[in-house]
Amino acid sequence: MIEALELLCEIAAQQDGFVEFRYHAKTSRSLGVDKGKVERSQIRHRKGVGVRVLTAGGWGFASTGQVDAASIKRAVQMARTAAAACASHAHSSTPGAGHQPLSSLPACTLARGIFDQPGLEEVATRSLEEKIGMATSLEAQIRGASRVIRSASCTYNEIFEDKAIVTTDGAAAAFRLVRPELRMQAVAEKDGELSTGSEAVGATGGWDCLFRSAAGEALAERAAKTAQDLLGARHAEGGRCAVILAPSIVGLLVHEAIGHTVEADFVQAGSVAAGKIGSRVASDLVTLCDSGGSEHYLGAGGTIPVDDEGVPASRTTIIKDGILVSYLHNRESAARFGVAPTGNARAWEYSDQPLIRMRNTYLEPGSRDLDEIIADTRDGYLLDGPRNGQADASGEFMFGVQEARRIRNGKLGELVRGVTISGIAFEVMQTVDAVSRDFRWDLGAGYCGKGQPAKVDAGGPYVRCRALLGGEE
User: What pLDDT is stored for residue 472 in this prediction?
Assistant: First the structure.
């Protein structure tokens, strides 16, 4: 990595105009155990350099899988040719208002130095046999938990990344990190009825980060118990009601239904957040942030020290006390909006161009205890464990929920199944009337899709609000 950084700095010093270089080496390992057998054990390695050039308002991109001076310089020339063609097209067309081509990028704070993240040796020195043994043991634990468990699976993944980002206007940064993740699923069956329980954890860091919230055995026990308990659970009553969202649901909501609407490219395309800076979009108990760091405790799955344009990936407050105060930007969108970039430019591999992406998105914790919030809820549900769902640029969402427990007169009651939660995110956020002091990252095993994958995390405290609840027949 250091050699790659030095090589890119040497080539950058020979260039005219704006050129951005990104060296990226990624090694991914995946292994899966299903029904007592190791069904998959594979490793994938990718390495190369991506180059972007800005010429007279036109961007050009090229990449090479050969990390040597001659190959990188050829990629620069290809990117320059593409940028010139793009610039020619831009000048021959009539850009819309506010979309005039940028002739250059404004100066901004750029990272310089080495920013390695913790956990690399801790994960690298554990043998493949040890990792397979862990997955095999956890899968066996799930299968053996009850006679009603019909099948189980356990998947372990890890991604090692080395990056170096150099730009001709001052960035010269490099870092290494590792992202381990673990997924487990139990399937229970009784009298022809099936139910599933799932647990997943992911982190940027070592084993201490991965298993911070619970040990692997505790996660396996929870997956099996959820599958068993859901077998006898009845369906929920539908309708608009009070709900207490666990950090997993809070994280999914703020990522999918709010976070994407404030990515500046989506804002420019007309998302619901367009034109709302300075407007109230949530209760004054709501403060929403996105950070390249792991706030509150280490290990958040989307952690990056520097984005793929060389901008420090610092914390950005999106909503402050209910008021929308910022979008998420790369360098180009920040220039168009007249603000500083927020460090949200990310690319999945060296051959991908950076896009505006979230990192670790979360609600700030509040001051109340969860038990107090439950006791203060006359009628409603406690929701935990996202299953699936969708959201769009209007902020409208619908998510499945793995576990929903009835609350009556301040007491936590029976488990119900087949629950969905839906609404319009900013409207739901307006109804928030209680926020716990508990905080948890809970989506670190997930991947965000937006043309290319990205490792992200999301979470927060327990939050009480009102939303539309639906059940399955």
Answer: 52
The enclosing domain of 221 has a CATH number of 3.30.2290.10
Domain boundary among 199, 216, 231: 231
Task: Identify whether residues 224 and 279 lie together within a single domain.
Answer: no
Q: Which of 209, 166, 174 is nearest to 21 (CA)?
A: 166
Residue for token digits 């804002």? 267
**CB-CB neighbours of 215 under 10 Å:** 10
- Band of pLDDT at residue 99, cut at 50, 70 and 90: low
Among 216, 231, 246, the domain boundary falls at: 231
Exposed, middle or buried, 403 (CB in 10 Å: 0-12/13-18/19+)?
buried
Domain ranges, residue 375: 235-470
Q: Are 53 and 76 in contact (CB under 8 A)?
A: yes
136 and 280 together in one domain: no
Contact 325, 466 (CB under 8 A): no
Q: What CA–CA distance (Å, rounded) separates 394 from 338?
A: 25
Is residue 451 left, alpha or beta, with left meaning phi > 0 and alpha meaning psi from -120 to 50? left
What is the chain's Cα-based Rg? 24
Residue 372's CB is within 10 A of a number of other CB atoms, namely 14
Same domain, 213 and 250: no
pLDDT interval class at 91 (50, 70, 90)? low
pTM of the model: 0.94
Q: Residues in the chain, how many? A: 473
